[in-house]
Amino acid sequence: MLYFPNAKINIGLNVISKREDGFHNLSTLFYPLQLCDGLEIVENGLDHTRFTQSGLTIEGELTDNLVYLALLLIKERFEIPNLDIHLHKKIPFGAGLGGGSADASFMLKALNEMFNLELNTQELIDLSVQLGSDCPFFIINTPCFATGRGEELVPTDLDLSGYRLVLVNPNIMVSTPEAFRYVTPHEPFTSLEEAILNPLPSWKGLVENDFEKSVFCQYPAIQELKTKLYQEGATYVSMSGSGSSVFGIFKNTVAWNREVIDPSYFVWEEIIK
Length: 273
Known about the structure:
The chain has helices at 66-75, 99-114, 121-128, 135-140, 176-181, 192-195, 212-218, 220-231; strands spanning 2-3, 6-18, 24-36, 38-43, 50-55, 83-89, 144-147, 152-155, 164-169, 236-239, 246-250, 266-271. The protein is α+β, with helices and mostly antiparallel strands.
């Protein structure tokens, strides 16, 4: 069977406080994109599972891959046959887009569907959070406010349909643990839930990503992307997650000049549905 794990963006990201478990309490809004990887899973009739990969090169050992770890979580609870698993990577790594988390969560959902495991949504969420803090979002995969580590989700009816989203990744890997080191946790003056209620044109300066200040200092090219997208007429621009991707939300009637972006950068454009 074939599945298409999709990316997400963070609309606003506030680091509220440091937790006793070493993580941070966050407030963010996850919004799904149409940008997808491809995940194919078939029974192979062999005495072992095979994993292959194409597209963007995945560094590291197979045993570190979140798709493989998701498989092991299911195998701890259920007897399932050996598989051929193929992952085609299109979502950039270290980009604040949740590509690895999406792959892992879609693997859990795929196995649940393929083998009639009858895991409900909450059970899938409980499994997925063991793989990553934003994995639970991809179980639900609709716009959600997220708190806690990012795993406490409340669906929202935020509707950006009809706007055009331009996503740019400058091929810079930003370490999430490193990004957290330079952020001072604090309560925002206006909560994200309140800020989002304002009209989109007023989000600039109101709906903020707390990682931008430190990440921009370390990687000026990322800040330059934000400036360029505003110059091209975007209504709202932000870095996603801890970076390095930057997205701009444009009125569909606004034309922007793609030539202002370095041709070596990854660019994705979609009409939001």
